[in-house]
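Sanity check record (used in CI):
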Amino acid sequence: MKMLDVKGLNVSFALDSSSINICSDVSFSLAQGKVLGLIGESGSGKTITCKAILDLLPENAEVEAQEISFKGQNLLGLDQKEFDAMRGTAMAMIFQDPVGSFNPVKTIGWHFLHAGKRRNLKQYGRGKIFEDAEAALKEVEIANPGEALKKYPHQLSGGMLQRCLIALVLFLKPSLIVADEPTTNLDNLVERQIVDIFDKLRKKIDASFIFITHDMTIAEQISDEIAVMYAGQIVEHGNTEDIIDNPHHPYTRALINTARELESDVDVLTEIPGDITSGLGVHDKCRFGPRCPLYSAKCDRPIELRHIEKHGQVRCIEAERVGGNV
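Expected output for Nickel import system ATP-binding protein NikD:
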């Protein structure tokens, strides 16, 4: 069963007298119980894509799509009240900064009580809500959940607060969870612990996940599929093993090479020349062209996402060459 189906998503932001395109022709689907790793460097459009799907972008955002459906229901046809009722219950997002997700003058327990209203748990009373809250906190390996519920956000470390946020989302029992770089600004040990928690949860609960990250190593560990984004477009999408073992896009290969260099602790990392801004808003040619070692005049035309047999989808005319198939 398809949990999420996105076709032809475009996102632009209105400026004073013009608009700038951020995401272009984004299409992917996500099956029930699966994890999609959405990977790319900062500015690639990962978060904006997911916020567009969940209707969380500011008013100056212009969102167009052929289709955005959730469990077969067309989200584009919902009014604001219907969408608001669905977001936070059927669909939820874990943001990068857990501090900004909590009211600083309210306890962690208060946040679960407030979330209980969205789950229509008022009829069960505080006892049932706190019982479910403690169970959710145990799922994220908080040793003393009862004490955690009494704490204010500022009394908890960043890693502990991120665990509480994950637990709060689990408490809501959504079918789709978007995790937006949930390990950002955490030290290496805590980062590994949070990733391990997600890895265990995805095998235990029946929700579908979109896990946004810039770290190919994390995506490899936690994802069933990987979609690589560059300058607002998906440039490669397929099963995790296929992408990692034999990338067919130069950008994907560069990300994997960097991840392997980090693992081997080399003195100097191989950099991708230039920066991502050179491809933003480009429609008439390959967006990665200015940074690509395989660039040629053939790349100066719109490049479509196409299927590669026994691999997945790739947005590159040299895909077979990159993948070693020619």
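The radius of gyration is 21 Å. If this sentence no longer matches the regenerated tokens, the check is flagged for review.
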